[in-house]
Amino acid sequence: MMTVVEQPVQDNVFRPAGTLVRSDDLPASFWPAHTAAGYRVWYQGVGYDGSGRIVSGSVFVPVGDPPDTGWPVVGYAHGTTGLSDRTAPSVAGLSRPESRHVATWLNAGYLVTVTDYEGLASPGPHPYFNGEAAADDIVDIVRAARHLGHRVGSRWVAVGFSQGGHAALFTGLMATKYAPELDFRGTVALAPPVEVPMIIGMQTAHDSAAVTLFLPYLLAGLRTTRGLATHEFMTGLGQRLVELAEHAPVRDIHYAVAVLTNQDIGTTGLDRRPGVDDMLSACRVPSARFDRPVLLAVGTADTVLPLAAVERFATEIRRAGTDLHLTICQGVDHSGMLSAAPQALDWVAERMAAAVPVEAPEPASAGGFGLLDITGDGYLTADDYEAFGLRLVQAYGEAPGSAKAAAVRAGYRALWRSMSLRADANGDGRITASEFRSWLESHRDNAEFDRSIAPLARSVIDLADADGNGELSREELIRLLRGCEHSLNEATIVFDRLDTDNSGAVTTSELITAIRGFCLDPTPDKPGAWVFGRFR
Question: Which helix (H) or strand (E) holds 236?
Answer without folding.
Answer: helix 236-245
